[in-house]
Amino acid sequence: MSHHITFVGAGPGAADLITVRGQKALQNAQVVLFDALIDDGLLAYCAPDVVLVDVGKRCSKNTAKPQDEISALLIEHGLKYARTVRLKGGDPSIFGRLDEELAAAKQAGLTVEVVPGVTAALAAAAAAQTPLTRRGVTRSIRILTATVGAAQPHNDWDAALDPSETMVFYMAGKQLREIGLRLLLAGFSAQTPTLIVRGASWSNQDCVRLTLQGLPDYVLSNSDAPTILMVGLALN
Ligand code: SAH
Q1: What average pLDDT values come out for the chain (236 residues) when binned by 10 residues?
Q2: Which superfamily does 4-115 belong to?
Q3: Fewer Cβ neighbours under 10 Å: the N or C end of the chain?
Q4: Tell me: the pLDDT tens digits for 20-43?
Q5: Is 35 annotated in the active site?
Q6: How does strand 83-88 pair with strand 165-170?
Q7: Distance in Å, CA 44 to ligand 1 centroid
Q8: Is the distance from the beta carbon of residue 120 to the nearest atom of ligand 1 less than 6 Å?
Q9: CA 134/CA 163 separation, integer angstroms
C-alpha cells in the first residue's frame, strides 16, 4: 500500500465545524501534524495510539517553525507511516502554504488528497450573523491580506477595491490602522461599514462593528485570538 497524506481543513476552531470526511481521516490517521490554533477537541477524534506532531507556527511567537522545516517533518512522517494527516486551520487552500507542502509530498512519491474546511471568512460571517452578499448591493467577495511575509514582494492589496464588494482581510489584527488609512486615502466613504471578528466559533468569539472612520484608531484588547476584518456595504 502506498503512503498517503490527507490534508484536512480543520475549520475555524470549534471541533464540530470540521467536515465528516475530515473527521474520518483523523480517526484513521497513524500520525497527525497540526497547526497552532487547532482545538484539542479535534485531536480527540484521533485513535488513542496516534502520533501527534505540533508544527504550530504563529507569526507573533519566537517559537515559529520555518515552512521548510514543516515540509521536512511532513515528508519524514509521510514516509514512515501509511496514513498521515496534515491538519490545517480553516481551509487548507487559503493562506495555508498548501502549494509548498503538496509539492514536497509529491516529490517524495507520496499520494495526496485535500479535504476542504470552513474558512475563517465564513465562520466570521456566521459569528456576526451577517451575510457577505446582499441583493442589489454586493455580489462579490474578496479574500485578501495586507500582511506581507519577510522577503516577499510588495503587496498591492489596495489596488482596485470597491465598497460594493465585501473585502475580507485575513491576518488583520496588526493591520487595522494601515488598512483603515489606506482605504480612506483611496476615497472610501468614512461611513463605510466595517466588522472585526476575533476567534470566530471559539467560546470567546467577539464581533465589533465600526465605520471606516473609526478603524484607524481602534485599539484591540490584547489577546491571542486570530482576527478577521471585513469592509463593505453588505455589512450595513
Ligand atoms: N487557512 C485559514 C487561514 C490561515 S491564515 C482559513 O482558511 O481560515 C490565519 C488567519 O486566519 C488569521 O490571522 C485570521 O485572520 C484568520 N482566522 C483563522 N481562524 C480564525 C477565527 N477562528 N476567527 C477569526 N479569524 C480567524
Answers
A1: 93 97 98 92 97 79 76 97 98 96 97 98 98 97 91 86 96 95 96 98 96 95 89 96
A2: Tetrapyrrole methylase, N-terminal domain (3.40.1010.10)
A3: N
A4: 999 999 999 999 999 988 889 999
A5: yes
A6: unpaired
A7: 21
A8: yes
A9: 12
Q: Hey, which of 227, 229, 230, 231 would you mutate to test ligand 1's pocket, going by the most ligand atoms within 8 Å of its Cβ? A: 227
- What number of CA atoms fall less than 13 Å from residue 8's CA on the CB side? 32
Domain ranges of the chain: 4-115, 120-235
Tens digits of residue pLDDT in 42-66: 999 999 999 999 998 655 555 567 8
Tell me which residue has cell 471578528: 197
| Domain spanning 120-235: CATH superfamily | Tetrapyrrole methylase, C-terminal domain (3.30.950.10)
- Cα angle 142, 146, 148 (rounded to 5 degrees) comes to 125
